[in-house]
Amino acid sequence: MKLEICCYSVESVMAAANGGADRVELCASAPEGGVTPSYATIEKSREVPGIGLYVIIRPRGGDFCYSPVEFDTMKRDIVMARELGADGIVTGLLLPGGNIDVERTSELVRMAGAMDVTFHRAFDMCADLMLALEDVYQTGIRRVLTSGGRNTAPEGLEILANLTAAAGDRLSIMAGSGVRATNLEALYLAGIREFHSSASATRPSPMQYRNPNIRMGKEGEVDEYTITMADEQLVSELRRRLDQLHSS
Hints:
By secondary structure, the protein is an alpha/beta fold. It contains eight helices and ten strands. It has helices at residues 10-19, 39-46, 68-83, 102-112, 129-139, 157-167, 184-189, 232-247, and strands at 2-7, 23-26, 52-56, 88-91, 116-119, 143-146, 172-176, 194-197, 200-204, 226-230.
């Protein structure tokens, strides 16, 4: 029963650790679904005690079909993550036809060396999830973060159950997207034993002056005056519920 929290800041990593999470997926740029964080963010997050640190290796938002230049960037980011002491990486590449890019993903796995590797939700964008599961296994990766090809894990519950059965003891299916304390039992009964959640809450920006004539982000997509981060209490609730399920 593993709990992973998606974190976009060092403060979020601290909240995840204090709340009892097993590990974090460290990212930047929440509006894009997560891209590789900065050197300093990884370094500072590594200083937080008592929690596993997994770094997303994703050079940009959008699709998961990467150019040679982007692929080279990903390889260099893996080296950086390893040198900074990350426990694992979270990554994945797709081919234009909607299948796993087995060759290049396998190369990233080899570069990761002793670091653990999770295949992220690029998996959910594949044309055939059962075929994708076997392709991920061929890369050497033993964990898939997925919502069952749906927007949220509760929506993809039946597919998650089928993937878990197909994976057997070869791979771990980790449910992510829309995972909350209130739906952990249904996911648990579907066979899920690893859970990924943002467990996030918002707080207002401390800015008092707010220029009404300019925005830094796209209107309607980014609120510069709301800060979103992992919430220690929500993480604790997830941890308590998982422990209850495990002991029942």
